[in-house]
Amino acid sequence: MSQPLVRNAREIARWDAQADVVIAGFGAAGATAAIEARAAGADVIVVERAGAGGGSAANSGGVIYLGGGTPTQKACGFEDTPEEMFKYLMAACGPSPDEGLVSAYCDGSLEHYAWLVDRGIRFRPRFAAAELGADECPGLVYSGTENAWPFNEIARPAPRGHYSADQGLASGGVLMQTLTQAAMKAGAAVHANTRCLALVVESDGRICGVVVRAAGEQSAVRARGGVILTTGGFISNREMLARHAPWLLPCTNVVGIEGDDGGGLMMGQAAGGVLCRMDAADISLPIYPPLQLRKGILINRHGQRFINEDAYMGRLGEFALLHQQGRVFLVVDDAIFARPEYLEADIAAVGETIAELEADLPLPSGALQATLSFYNEHAAKGRDPLFRKKAEYLAPLAQPPLAALDLSVDVVPYGVLTLGGLQIDTAGAVLDRDGDPIPGLYAAGRTTSGVCKGGYSSGLSIGDSTFFGRRAGRSAAARAIREREARPG
Amino acid sequence: MSQPLVRNAREIARWDAQADVVIAGFGAAGATAAIEARAAGADVIVVERAGAGGGSAANSGGVIYLGGGTPTQKACGFEDTPEEMFKYLMAACGPSPDEGLVSAYCDGSLEHYAWLVDRGIRFRPRFAAAELGADECPGLVYSGTENAWPFNEIARPAPRGHYSADQGLASGGVLMQTLTQAAMKAGAAVHANTRCLALVVESDGRICGVVVRAAGEQSAVRARGGVILTTGGFISNREMLARHAPWLLPCTNVVGIEGDDGGGLMMGQAAGGVLCRMDAADISLPIYPPLQLRKGILINRHGQRFINEDAYMGRLGEFALLHQQGRVFLVVDDAIFARPEYLEADIAAVGETIAELEADLPLPSGALQATLSFYNEHAAKGRDPLFRKKAEYLAPLAQPPLAALDLSVDVVPYGVLTLGGLQIDTAGAVLDRDGDPIPGLYAAGRTTSGVCKGGYSSGLSIGDSTFFGRRAGRSAAARAIREREARPG
Known about the structure:
2 copies of one chain form a homodimer.
Chain A: E1 6-8, E2 17-24, H1 28-39, E3 44-47, H2 55-58, E4 63-65, H3 71-75, H4 82-92, H5 99-107, H6 109-118, E5 140-141, E6 161-163, H7 171-185, E7 189-191, E8 194-201, E9 207-214, E10 217-229, H8 238-244, E11 253-254, H9 263-270, E12 275-276, E13 281-284, E14 297-299, H10 313-323, E15 329-332, E16 346-351, H11 354-359, H12 367-379, E17 402-406, E18 415-418, E19 421-422, E20 429-431, E21 437-443, H13 460-486
Parallel strand pairs in A: 1-8, 2-3, 2-10, 3-7, 10-21, 11-18
Antiparallel strand pairs in A: 4-6, 5-6, 8-9, 9-10, 12-19, 13-18, 14-15, 15-17, 16-17, 20-21
Helix pairs in contact in A: 1-7, 1-13, 4-5
């Protein structure tokens, strides 16, 4: 039988340690929760299974999705409002996004930016037209499909991907060093190499602690105010992927760390929390940089286009994998030929004419010719009637030789990150199946189905981890203080 | 706080009733479980929340997916083997189908056919080329995409949809009358208007009973061998749909009954069972009968075809809703004009020429003209290079006037049935997160993620409900008898 994920308080013979707030996981959500809980006057214990904090955010590019008119946006000459940010996220994070979380996130974004700056995070006021991935530090970028169809018709485009340091793609490490040090400096007691095994529950359903294991020994830690689950998602748990999202299994670029094994989700669920959209994922197919590759066309195995190639890499990947079974080619001509910087893409075929190219590909005869004939005719006039790619990326693909790069999921590394998790409210409390908070249980980050419930833009994961991590920390601290004050004498 | 779905045995002051096997739900899975448990020598209590048994199967067309060379298949002149059936189902029920369940289902199909006949179910040896839905009783039909691309290249096509009586589309009612009466005649004690509220668990994790409510009064029923959850899926629970599969919410043809509220899934999960593929559903868009409509073309909002129109209605619906956001048209010419028998489809536009038709539709200019020009050119030669529709459904769409029927999800009723549920083994035992059976807990039918884990063909739901319902009944009975014999004299 499985080890229990929830233990009854009466089974706990003795509390080996106690604190107002106990946090499982010391990544972006855990560190911010610890900082805020300490700031609210709570004492805090953090348990982290790895040897040091940082979590998957430390391994990431460190981009944070912020908007509504941040100083960085203004310095780069972009207007933005919480309302436009809300419109974009409600469209990009659906279907059926969590309106309450999205709304809180947008309304609080300027304050969150300022808070991060106060903690020592620096944002560079330089706009980079190339999305994520230039060698030098990008600064501020479009990190979703804000500036391309269909979202550019839904909300006024603004770049909201804020790189958090001058370190380029190492920003995640710098960010997490800053946040974990701030948490420790604030007085959070961090226990590394300590794994959270189970939640402890009172007979009335309140969560009152955790059972942890360190160096082979189990111990019980009492949480007077609450337990916050911030242990990441489940991208590294292949059984859970097979059960909830088997199409992710062939994707080889796992965006996460070994600890993203779903443990926090399962503990939260065992305590009565509900899981949301366990099928959802960020699925990333970075066909650029270089940006010129947006002038190519992505085709499916029927030789049809299926998306505007200037969409965000997370939208390209989602459409390619979920709607086209991960069987797609990028067709380019000699004028734009390049290999995508992040993909070891094979050249599947080369031809002096479209017919020659097509003959060498596993495509229905005539299909690519029909597709390119239609595309080129309109591209010459700067139009893309099918998918409304922007004029700057439209030019007939006509300069021989033509080539097709194989971007199929079994050939190139699609990046994947799970988005499914526990449902929380705007205070960071874990909700039960009736939508009621479970007393004493909080969560944030990829342990939850957060702002990015049903869709993704880069920076949303660290964005909602830090935003709702802070809220969970404050909520758990406030509960501890209320309990303390309610105690007689 | 939510009412508990699992209760500790020590909280049960008194057992109001007891039996070897307790079954929650008296539909296709529950009735067959009861019959087999009785046949194995167990005494059986069935609790059913509705006023009478039948479940959603009683409201259905009653088709059962059977194969491997059944007498009905043979009488109609079709060859089939368990191996070909297995090849089809492994392709059609994925990605990542449950190989163990599919294999058991195919290997046992002939025996299951004979068992159903022995219980009084009659199958009519008449092959009907039109799939599901002719007015007269169809008999034997292709009830999936066995005979169309791509599955006709994966497995030798054979029709496996067996209508279970001479009653045409009322077959489900006749089927369930037969099965529920057989269960009662066999001695199962059926308690109608009795709702299962919670499972009762021993301190060592064994499931030993249920708490039920009838006429406002709660009582506890002890299960010596096991509890079998057969309470249906969750298509009628809109909160669960919003959480797991929000794209189903706009679909107005709910294939199920009010009782399909997910209660059994939630109880099983609360007892440690794992849920699988909660996003999965049968999504049905019946563009035919009449069959001539297969000669039309389905197009998306970009004016492109996206599927062979002779595919199974469940595949048409899945592709239309999941890959095309439920925004599709059926384009026909005057030679084949008709309205789909099951859809109140609006005529969105009519035109003497393709250009005229296109101009009246919300489509990119020129797109439909390009699509039809390519389609007609090849259809005239009996070929469909893109999607390999069969030659018998290929003819240029050229006889004016042309028309487009709006088959968008907000216009016509897509049929939907949830497929996600508890993971079971081939004995019908509910599995925990480590893949181990939970002692004393069984399930079958849409409470489980069964044979149709990730894809559907008509008849699979009643098929796997009855097949694994039987197995769960035998397993729970055997456990009761083992426990009885182990008890000291």
